[in-house]
From TrEMBL, chains A, B:
The chain crosses the membrane at residues 20-41. This is MBL fold metallo-hydrolase. Residues 125-324 form the Metallo-beta-lactamase domain. SUPFAM superfamilies: Metallo-hydrolase/oxidoreductase.
């Protein structure tokens, strides 16, 4: 019954999957459209509208400097075709002692990779941008792979009181991680504090304890105060929702300890403003990775040098570098951010103990 | 701080999401490649290899007639650009009586939409190709949407003894549905019977009770015998796994009732062979939808006319049409398959009671 003569197979025909067709056609159509014309849109001035400056009339958000970060598709291709992707690297992963996590004797912070921290202060346990999945992607089989395993599983987490999310990119908002954390505490789930417009996304996952805040708004709950703060970034989760939900940094005040998480951000004046309004930040988590190539990344991601300036702008007591060494998102080598950070600190005459990096799974007490 | 003058936004720049870039670049690269050359590959004859005829040396599978179904990317575009997508339609959805499902007094079958049935026979409850999610897609925000809600939730299902999966396309193998069913019965999960090569996929979901079978192989378990049978189709779930896992129809023998589920299939001689080896099929579920346009769909999806021929080839006692009225995958109107089925039956002089369709959620007893 077998006829090898019929086995002519068209290479590239691996795209015949009915279910992938929708995606591919969307993309193909838009490639053609993008090839024909790039249309610039000037927003009408809505001078009299009664809304905050970063809320646009079309329902999207902009940065405090008025920019909507927006490279052209041509620039995206220019980057991706010319790029040399860095190699995956091995990093030490420390396994946190469950007893130390269960009964912290002091304020402590555990780095879970990328922008995920477990903050334990004043008897409260707070997670930032938790990500425990294999990829930072809407697809389980494609998209940036996690190079370094999470040092803790969701099961091994202590009871969590609050989860803060900086924005909706897949390396910061991971559905499986959020539902896993939520379902693990069915009787007493954490509160999920998110930037404006993101509550709906969490509700669609079945999470009923989401609270959304605009910049400078605070939510006091269970002995903690969580404040959304402006940073310079953008949002997008599907094809057509660019900047429709807000991005933020977070100030977490728990038991008098003030932890600032800068989310994802380019360098901006926002940090001076935050430092002036909150002059007593104990610890700031500041992104130091995903910066190359600068011509493409500068608006959305600060460099280690800029991160040092942010530390100075904030006038924080201590800082920890984050957003590096976990996924390969951009062109710098995976281990380069802390090296550049050390150089930048030295250039400014700042002792490295003030702004350091942690090992994956390392617990630091304050 | 807001400067409307900076608000120049590039249309089409909505693709800047770092996490979507990987997908888009893959697609863009392959579009370019496909535009340059289409390379035909002739498989070397592996005449002496000690393997079944449908197992190829490169690890992929072919149909019993030797074909690997494989339209060109050009044909895909030709279809998608010329197509008029049919409108969504409303269908009656019946809510099955939970008591009838909990205590069936006879062999009964409930249609859960598309290719999903709940078979209850000999005290066993078997699900075929269960799909309870909003989309048949690897993406939660794009891909074919479910037009008609599932008549039952996973929570409302009775205890399930076995789940059979025909192949790995997203409208037949839905991860969330499978994990939902598995996790609902932690102490006594169903067995998941899948075609060769698919066990690994289920294991990656955390499902530990998967059994994989090649065509004509049977698995006897818990008073049921489940047999994988050849049909004419193909498989693909990611970009590069075309035909790397097998597709199958299933014969479920429970309490002496013989239920044949044809999976997804074009018309082929396989059904005569199945009818000759299993001359006493009580009920056959046969696909009648997703057939237009014929030039593109013929190899993979039979028409209602061909479905009637399959019914005759099988010599089954009764048949039910499936694979219609739930998702919009192809070009025919959503309600056309049963109308064409009725015409085809009349043309052959077959009474409509022998080969009918069910309403969503309808329970039929035998």
């Amino acid at each position: 019954m077998k006829s090898e003569g019929n086995l002519e197979t068209l290479k590239f025909s691996c795209f015949e999957n009915l279910q992938l067709k929708t995606i591919l056609l969307l993309v193909a159509s838009l490639l053609v459209a993008a090839g024909c014309a790039a249309v610039f849109v000037n927003e009408p001035d809505a001078a009299m509208a009664d809304r905050p400056a970063h809320h646009r009339a079309d329902g999207t958000f902009v940065n405090t400097d008025g920019t909507a970060i927006s490279k052209s598709f041509t620039d995206l291709l220019r980057w991706r075709w010319s790029r040399t992707e860095p190699d995956a690297m091995a990093f030490d992963v420390m396994e946190p002692d469950p007893e130390v996590l269960a009964q912290p004797v002091a304020t402590q912070v555990t780095w879970l990779g990328h922008s995920a921290f477990l903050l334990q202060a004043g008897g409260k346990n707070v997670l930032t941008d938790p990500h425990f999945s294999e990829r930072a992607s809407p697809l389980s089989f494609a998209g940036p792979e996690r190079i370094v395993v999470p040092p803790l599983s969701i099961e091994a987490l202590p009871h969590i009181h609050a989860v803060v999310i900086s924005h909706n990119h897949y390396d910061h908002l991971d559905e499986a991680s959020l539902t896993g954390i939520y379902n693990k505490q069915p009787d007493n789930p954490p509160v999920f504090v998110v930037p404006l417009g993101l509550k709906e996304e969490l509700v669609s996952y079945g999470i009923k304890t989401a609270v959304e805040l605009d910049w400078w708004q605070s939510y006091t709950h269970d002995g903690m105060t969580l404040t959304a703060l402006p940073v310079k970034h953008w949002s997008q989760r599907t094809f057509f929702d660019r900047n429709r939900t807000l991005w933020a940094g977070w100030l977490v005040d728990a038991g008098g300890f003030r932890f600032f998480h800068a989310g994802d951000s380019g360098y901006s004046d926002d940090f001076k403003e935050i430092g002036s309004r909150y002059p007593d930040i104990d610890l700031a988590a500041i992104p130091i990775g995903a910066y190359d190539p600068r011509w493409f990344m500068k608006d959305a991601h600060m460099s280690p040098e800029e991160a040092v300036q942010v530390y100075l702008d904030l006038n924080a007591r201590k800082a920890i570098g984050m957003h590096w060494g976990t996924f390969i998102l951009t062109d710098e080598e995976m281990d380069e951010p802390p090296l550049k950070l050390a150089d930048a600190l030295e250039a400014k005459g700042i002792d490295g103990s003030h702004f350091s990096v942690m090992k994956h799974g390392e617990v630091v007490q304050f």
